Amino acid sequence: MLDILHEYGLMFLVGTWPVGPLGGFANTLVLAGLGLGLGLSFPLAMLLALARTGSIRWLKMLATVWVYTFRGIPLVMVVFWAYFLLPVMIDTTVPAFATALAAIVVYESAFLAEIVRAGLDGLPKGQMEAARSIGLSYAQAMKSVILPQALLNIIPSLVSQFVSTIKATSIVYIIGVQEITFSAQQINSIEMTRALSVFLVLAAFYFVACLELSQFARWLEARIRARQLRPA
Amino acid sequence: MPDMIDLQHVNKWYGQYHALNDVTNQVKKGEVVVVCGPSGSGKSTMIRTLNRLEPIQGGRIFVNGEDIHAVGRDINVLRAGIGFVFQQFNLFPHLSARENVMLSPLKVAGMTKAEASELAAGLLEKVGLGHRIDSMPAQLSGGQQQRVAIARALAQKSPLILFDEPTSALDPEMVGEVLSVMKQLAAEGMTMVVVTHEMGFAQEVADRIWFMDAGQILEDSLPAEFFSNPQHPRARKFLSDVLEPRGAATLPY
Ligand SMILES: Nc1ncnc2c1ncn2[C@@H]1O[C@H](COP(=O)(O)OP(=O)(O)OP(=O)(O)O)[C@@H](O)[C@H]1O
Ligand SMILES: [Mg+2]
């Protein structure tokens, strides 16, 4: 196993880059990172959750349909749909990476939106009432009072979802996105007889990434909670 | 004295349930009105319509001359002029006492951080919490939390504060500290509407008592009259229940 890592470490990490496009684990992280927190999925999920907890009827329905649709179908289907539909819809060819990203964003937004919504619903009603009573607008109340509490409470659920997304990105190798599972496939076809070791290394990469993320989240949550209970 | 609050034929339904039934009454500037009545009589509903936490389906409510339920009014501006103190305190748990008090001055009144901080420190001092300014709500007792909530309402610099059972969630030994802050405000001329079962407070501080039952204000009288000679039979029953919870009526024969 170590000799595989030794021999193909670079390929696992960055694919054929810099000769070819960036691939391997780096691309997995880029895909997961863009698709989630920093990128598009989480902001989209926040909007969906606000729409679902808000009082504007048509927005609420739209968000609900979105959530139920994308939560109810497997990610592979979304990836395929994006692969075949996206080029037709916008009438140009779409790079595999962008296709994969779009699929992951819409798929994950549905799950994340439900987590955020649970966080919003989980706060006592009096928090919003008190915030509005002192004259804050809905948006101000959300920003200063509701979201800081709700997001802190849902960090563990968010992390679970992030972790499962990192793993789920592995599926996009089927449309040719060069991430780490794609690299592993390539290495496997070079080596032929060492599939077990190759895929063990692959698993280790995912495992370590998810472990690190969980630990970071725990550290972050502890830090924020400690600050909230700082001795006076 | 002009009216601070003017309720005109206010009607409210929860579905089929008629929660406020043609409520009409006024509170003058500087007055302290204590609202009492049995559970479910509509006290919370009534007080919550005054800053539009609850919508109404009929009638009008003026606070300081402003039509609170008029469509198109900037409700945030109107609400900023009305303090509200909740039974459950509803402090923002992720903010310190000072930050709780600063929020409205910062976000609504547009004060600078320094101004808001100074205002908050002064108000927390006033409610007897000068030494707990930077405490988080979780580190404060119920009585202290409620006093922070009162300071938060005072920070709005409004001439009117509404209290919905401000001492009902408190352990008995903490009721006094909150009531004494409220008495001080009343003495300084704050207009107050207070839903409470604290009849001692009502007797001592209130200018008038409203007795509510079944979504109506059945009785509106001076405390002395109300306690010595309640007019309505239901008010008499209520008083005997509140003042003598284990009175003769409930003793087995
Ligand atoms: N959101 C609601 N939906 C439906 N009915 C409600 C709602 N809020 C209150 N009610 C009903 O309206 C009536 C008045 O309630 P309200 O809370 O105003 O009573 P209250 O006088 O404050 O009672 P308490 O002393 O128990 O606080 C009650 O019968 C209650 O069940
Ligand atoms: Mg009530």
From TrEMBL, chain A:
Cited Pfam families: BPD_transp_1
Keyword terms of this UniProt record: Cell membrane, Membrane, Transmembrane, Transmembrane helix, Transport
All residue ranges annotated as the ABC transmembrane type-1 domain in the record: 25-211
Gene Ontology MF term list: transmembrane transporter activity
Membrane topology: Multi-pass membrane protein
GO CC list: ATP-binding cassette (ABC) transporter complex
Membership in a protein family: Belongs to the binding-protein-dependent transport system permease family. HisMQ subfamily.
This protein's record includes keyword Aminoacyl-tRNA synthetase: no
Lineage, broadest ranks: Bacteria, Pseudomonadati, Pseudomonadota, Betaproteobacteria, Rhodocyclales
Lineage top rank: taxon: Bacteria
NCBIfam families per UniProt: HEQRo_perm_3TM
Protein name: Amino acid ABC transporter permease
Glycoprotein is among the record's keywords: no
Compartments in which it is found: Cell inner membrane; Cell membrane
GO biological process: amino acid transport
Transmembrane segments: 29-51, 63-84, 96-116, 195-220
